[in-house]
Amino acid sequence: MGSATEYNRRDIFKRAAAVTVLAAGGGSLLAACAGGTGGSSDAKSSSSTGTGSATNPFGVKASDPLDVVIFKGGYGDDYAKAFEDMYKKTYSGATISHLGTQDISPKLQPRFNAGNPPDVVDDSGAQQMKIDVLAGADQLTDLSVLLDAPYLDDPSKKIRDVLLPGTIEQGTINGKMYSLNYVYTVYGLWYSNKLFKEKGWAVPKTWDDFITLCGTIKAAGIAPFAHQGKYPYYANYVILDLIAKQGGLDLVKKIDACDPTAWDDPAVLAGVSAFYKIMAGDFLLPGTNGMTHTESQTAWCQGKAAFIPSGSWLENEMIKVTPADFDMAFLPIPSLSGDKLPPTAVRAGAGEPFIVPSKGKNKNGGLEFLRMMLTKEGSGKFAAAANSLTVLKDGIGADVVLKPGTKSSSVAVTAAGTGTFNFTYPDLQTAFDTELQNATNELVNKRISPADWVARGKAATSKKV
Known about the structure:
Layout: H1 16-24, H2 28-34, E1 66-71, H3 78-90, E2 96-101, H4 104-113, E3 120-122, H5 131-136, H6 144-147, E4 150-151, E5 154-158, H7 167-170, E6 172-173, E7 176-177, E8 180-192, H8 193-199, H9 207-219, E9 223-225, H10 233-247, H11 249-256, H12 266-280, H13 293-301, E10 305-311, H14 314-317, E11 328-331, E12 346-355, H15 363-373, H16 376-386, E13 389-390, H17 404-416, E14 420-421, H18 425-428, H19 430-444, H20 450-460
Parallel strand pairs: 1-2, 1-3, 9-10, 12-14
Antiparallel strand pairs: 3-12, 4-5, 6-7, 8-10, 8-11, 8-12, 8-13
Helix pairs in contact: 3-15, 3-16, 10-11, 10-12, 12-20, 19-20
GO cellular component, one term: cell envelope
Protein name: Carbohydrate ABC transporter, N-acetylglucosamine/diacetylchitobiose-binding protein
Signal peptide: 1-31
């Protein structure tokens, strides 16, 4: 959600590798999922077990240890240490165990299978434990109790009242919220404002303008486009955004629902065909199809490519190798003729899922940890440490200075207004997502056509975990 080890994040990333790890590391969770419906069968696993009060709604005991595991990817884990300091101020007797790692599934699956999971987990990265698998195995706490808890900054409000639109839905499976997607992530193309100013290149507003500019960039001796080839979901950010803007929100919902008729919509072929012009024009950075996220992003930071797709974790993830005067900037996917969504529309929404395992020894403390994250203090600490926004409404104060890329993405979200969209299938339809990534890998290597990609996408809708 991302970042990281890949991947990242995200994303957030993600997917095929996570499934492989789950299958290889011990089959109990997958076996439980095979017949699961995504709901908890144990009432105790979906609510706090302590005696609560207005100031301590989950009944947290001050002396109970808290076990925290954080995906140490694009956002690092310093922000989580700041949250832990906040927790200690209230629960001074608590001993906090902190693990920052990119190996989420290898580290945690044995603990889940043994009934000894952490109390709170940032479950992200290439080796993320899949939320749908965990929910189907009754391993997650229903976070409805968090949503109905008082907002610390204004107890007259509930947590659900201060979250940005889509946050609850992004973590909901079969009517229950199992993950708090904490980071408000923006997806699209990224470029160096310094490079564009030096070359006198105008930022494209339409896809036709983009492809024309790619020709100009190539003639200047720079690769127009790089992507994180070993992790095809990055390229899917572009393809699916083109499709979403062309086909509209109803098509987005049908794709998320794995509705096979979605793939008969002309917008799907139009979107992937537009993307394929990058390969047809030989606009890819040489070797990018085999690069990891860090390899391709480093080459981009070095000026070897003009555009790269990613989420808004990119700036923080590459902060150590980005030139000081790079002036990173964000661009929503340029529009196609006949789009149903406006040119300013952008994929944006809640990402970086935090979970509270149902069998954690101090899951009440885990819930309270999340409640503290959802304060202006917590949101501000995250923004300062991770250069990204959170899902808390108006969560960033004027005292927080954002870096150029983060500021640029924030401006784009403001310009989009209500014209934002997001896809849930990468988190909630694991098998489908894996198949779609595989098809995209074939597409960028020009081993299949756009029409073949559409056919494979349609066939993938029948894939279930």
